[in-house]
Amino acid sequence: MFPPKINFFFLTAVSVFTISCNQHTNEDKKSEKEIKPVIEALRTDTIQHDSILSAITYHYLPLDSLLITQLKDKFSPENLKLILALNRVDFEHVWKVDTLVVPDTFIEDLKRYSPFPDSLILIKDIPKLIFFSYYSQMFAAYEYGNLVRWGSTSMGKRSTPTPTGLYFTNWKAKQTISTENPDWKLNWYFNLDNARGVSLHQYDLPGFPASHACMRLYEEDAHWFYDWAEQWILIDDHNIAAYGTPVIIFGSYPFGKRKPWLQLPDNYLATHHNEEELNTEIENFLPVITERKSERDSVMAGKQNTIL
After folding, report:
1. 230-248 burial by CB neighbour count: b if 16+ within 10 A, else e?
2. Full-prediction pTM beyond 0.90?
3. Are the C-beta atoms of 49 and 150 separated by less than 8 Å?
4. % of the chain at pLDDT higher than 70
């Protein structure tokens, strides 16, 4: 059942532009181009992100070895990229997944599938903030309260869980070697906890939490964070002058139970995080985030004055 706030035009538009997962060539691209102005028109009609989510339905796609080899033929590159992200898996490990969740509607603007809100008023004065949801195995990056990127992750497995709470991006490296295993090369690495080694970096996404407490990412997401997030500024080896970008890690994963995203065909909000939920997380840490923003602003202003 669609929420009452969705008008008749929205229902008609979505029903007309819903496309089959097997239509991925010219017909697929044409449909995506047709859907985009509809979504834009709905935005001007004050249709909310949650309402768009409710109009996107999902189905299950059971996998076998033959079908896996056909995935690149069945879906366009952009649509396959979305499918893999929704299932928290990379193509190299999709064989570990017996069933994929696939949207019935493919929209060019991938933000429409985000489980996070488009905007958060509470952090409108915060330049950058990152969320990692343990439950949904997804991240979201905000600039002044506006969502700029979201994506999938593989966080700590049951025996080595990712610690929750407030962190800040510290130092980064294009590649470093894991302290757990010297054979593990971690690309586009961004440290969050210098003592424990908790970090963001590129590594395998097998479709479930599998890391040693870090947040594994697709390479393009890890590379993006490497360029986008701020490093700390040190006074010396033991003292921090200014902290990097705040990162809120929250929630818990239902180990031993059905993966949350596999519930999407029955519940379009199965992995959704609404503004109220995120505000609760933000409020726990906002005084610290605000204080450290001011400290960083002062340090950066001092550096600018020194240059001048």
Report:
1. bbbeeeeeeebebbbbbbb
2. no
3. no
4. 81
